[in-house]
């Protein structure tokens, strides 16, 4: 009975003072046998526990919480619960040796040591996964684990990486149904979780699925949990599920929900509030699609206009400036999959394939006029690979800074052509006759130092883009003179029209 476990852990604790000298992270509590012990007003978890096999786990969101006298009552309860009545030895990692003095005051046997066979409870930080397999076995066989640490600093140093999947401590904790997230939270005084119903990711997801199935609008408590559920779902879906039935089962639940309800329509004329079921479904659909090589399972779209034959384009793989996008003039329709073939010489050279140009993340917006995240990027890790994007988008090859690969032929199957005109290179007659009528919904107009990305409907009437682009070229030349920089930029600037941006 997890409620009895929580009651034991919080016995005699009326307040959890987390002002312990460090900025904590937050936790994702996603296991069937994991449970929160401290929630803030936004339902973010700061302390949690879990059962796993025959053992038990307690997690804090900063290591300083594990030896703070302010939390002595809670820590003694935690060690007692983890010990499960054995009255065994508590092993404390050297980085937490201050905990030993706190335990000795309560006459709890402890010693500074690494994980060893004669200890009942092991206390350590979350900054290393060196002993991951040993810790998993230790807990499964009945041991107790007390772990603490924050992941926000790791996240700040590993941009683009999901802390929930890659942070060292989570390589240990994920299996227990607990994960330390890469966001920070406020170090403050919080009430402990009380008896009765409170937020838990699995509980909220089940309620969401049930109410959608009954065609209900969200009611309390789900209504107050929706925003937290949406954010937790996005985090959870970064955890690899291929070798874990517990995770895969949640993926199946989400897939069923989305297939049953469909993906909500969102646009300038049909905006969606951030705390609505529609916003939750949009975020779930995006997150789930990123775990799939083929997002067709989530969206049924006609393949009309998709070119079955391979299209080969050549991109410039030399880049003296910062990371640069190279346009392919191709578009991947929503829900479809493209197969990208590259020369073996560029595999592992830092190139990426990107679908979509609208990189602004709207996850924090109060109202949505498009899905919060609508691009997908993957490394060129093999000669032939598939990429799918739920929302579709123009296909780019992202070239890293200082790349010297020269011209690189890229072959794409499963895409449609997009209108593309570059001043001085594209044939004006071909533009007028066919290029401007290519079926993709987005088009690009380019000069040497600038690329404009606009809806195709806004250029199909344009018989000749040369006068417009000549003006833009003059503007960019004037900018280079004003800035006293070389006339040719290291990479072209880009202007991308978007129905909504995150700032401004």
Automatic annotation (TrEMBL):
<dbReference type="GO" id="GO:0090314">
    <property type="term" value="P:positive regulation of protein targeting to membrane"/>
</dbReference>
<dbReference type="GO" id="GO:0005886">
    <property type="term" value="C:plasma membrane"/>
</dbReference>
<dbReference type="Pfam" id="PF17291">
    <property type="entry name" value="M60-like_N"/>
</dbReference>
<dbReference type="Pfam" id="PF13402">
    <property type="entry name" value="Peptidase_M60"/>
</dbReference>
<dbReference type="InterPro" id="IPR031161">
    <property type="entry name" value="Peptidase_M60_dom"/>
</dbReference>
<dbReference type="InterPro" id="IPR035423">
    <property type="entry name" value="M60-like_N"/>
</dbReference>
<dbReference type="InterPro" id="IPR051244">
    <property type="entry name" value="TCAF"/>
</dbReference>
<protein>
    <submittedName>
        <fullName>TCAF2 factor</fullName>
    </submittedName>
</protein>
<dbReference type="GO" id="GO:0044325">
    <property type="term" value="F:transmembrane transporter binding"/>
</dbReference>
<feature type="domain" description="Peptidase M60">
    <location>
        <begin position="323"/>
        <end position="504"/>
    </location>
</feature>
